[in-house]
Amino acid sequence: MRAMDAQLIENARQTLADERDRLRLELSEEVEHPRVAHGAQTAAATEVTESQRGQQLREREEVHLVAIEAALKRIDAGTFGTCSVCGKPIAPERLEALPWATDCIDCHSKKRR
């Protein structure tokens, strides 16, 4: 492994750990629902919409946390940076931008088609 590769992995580990900690904290916080005066149908509808958005965001963050934890496990296992589809190395630029990426850009593009 080249020195830059080791540094990239260490940077990714730190980024992932920081993001994991942030998400865990955010997900552990109680979700507050604003109180709405009775008879205020518009306000009640707004509250429901905001609650649904909050739930969607929470679910997205939970999925993201799972991906981050999986990436940390790949670092520990020595498989970080290897495409789960084709087995080729994932570009360092992709890992710097998305350290939880599981696939190379070519395989990712094929999945999106």
Helix and strand layout, with pairings?
Blueprint: H1 3-28, H2 41-77, H3 92-97, H4 105-112
Q: Let me know the average pLDDT.
A: 87
Determine the oligomeric state from the structure.
single chain
Secondary-structure content class? mainly alpha
What's the overall geometry?
Answer: elongated
Estimated share of beta-strand residues:
under 5%
CATH class: Mainly Alpha
How many DSSP H or I helices? 4
Helix proportion range = 55-70%
* Overall radius of gyration: 19 Å
Largest sheet: none
What is the first-to-last residue Cα distance?
34 Å
Helices and strands, in N-to-C order? Answer: HHHH
At the fold tier of CATH, the topology name is Four Helix Bundle (Hemerythrin (Met), subunit A)
At CATH level 2, the architecture is Up-down Bundle
CATH superfamily: DksA, coiled-coil domain
Strand runs, count: 0
